[in-house]
Amino acid sequence: MRSMANLDYTYIIQELKPLEGKHLDKFYELGDGLFRMKIGSDSILMQLGKRLHITKLLEEAPEPTGFVMKARKELGGRKLKEVRQKGRDRIIIFDFGGMELVAEMFGGGNLVLVQGGKINYVYERKEWKDRSLKPGEDYSFPPSGEKELDEILDNPGDKSIAAELVPLNIGITYVKKILAIAGVEESKKGSEVTAAEKKRIKEVYAERMENLSPSVMIVDGKPSDYSLFGEVRSTPRSSEEGKEEGRRANWEPFESLSAALDGCFGVAEKGNPEEARIRDMLAKQEERLLALGQEERDSKVKGDLIFEKYAEVEEVLSAYKKGGLSAVEKIAKEKGWKLDKKNKELEMEL
Question: What does the DSSP assignment read for 77-126?
Fold first, then answer.
């Protein structure tokens, strides 16, 4: 399953906003780089570098690690003042008023406790040429390079248009979907994109960003992918992806991105109730399709019979208009048909 893209994090922030003003109750590390914290009555799952969302699938927590004990000490009982994203970067900040928990979800991911602009504690110490994650150091965000769509399209370079659009900070997954919907080849050089294609890219981008809707792709009864672009089907990026879309693939809408992610990832150790729900939903849909198919075949048979007996039906209707049931009864006797005068039903031989 793919990792969450920048746009997914932008969307998930809106689902986390209702937690503001509630207190941190519990904090666990369920496995290497997999955390769960309970704020109010909701649980947030963070898999570093992979996903972050509200979950209803709860695993039993092991003994606390060093980072967990430090986080509990610094954050336990504190009220969540604000949860926000840094621009559209894959960085989520949980502000507990005086102490921040920064979830860096890019690369392999990391968690940093920040107090007064300085690093109080860090899950994994890291150091780069211009940035260091160590206790006591000033905390600084990595450079972003985020740009707006007009800025990119007004001065495109010679990289592929897909690469040129990466600074939109929505994630390459969504960049490629936008290009596919717009009908622009993703490998085409940015400098060679026509004015008409740029216009179409802008239209698709605006329309998609205004109508984000979580959904999950179901392939052979199992969750295969998730998206905020509703049930849009884009051109397969590879032959393997094309094969996947061909194996009974369809998109199912979800009430929230968190529910969609629960459905896609689940809890391997205890099974996935969300996946079971999806399987049940798919089974009911297939049952309904079979029923509709049978109804269609029955309707066709009836239609063929009516067409075949058209002349005789017309004769009966004409006789009824002129002479009523007695005229129909006369025809029935001649043809050997059964007439129920009481219920006005005529049984014709096929």
Answer: T-B--EEEESTTSSEEEEE-SS-EEEEE-STT-EEEEEETTEEEEESS-E
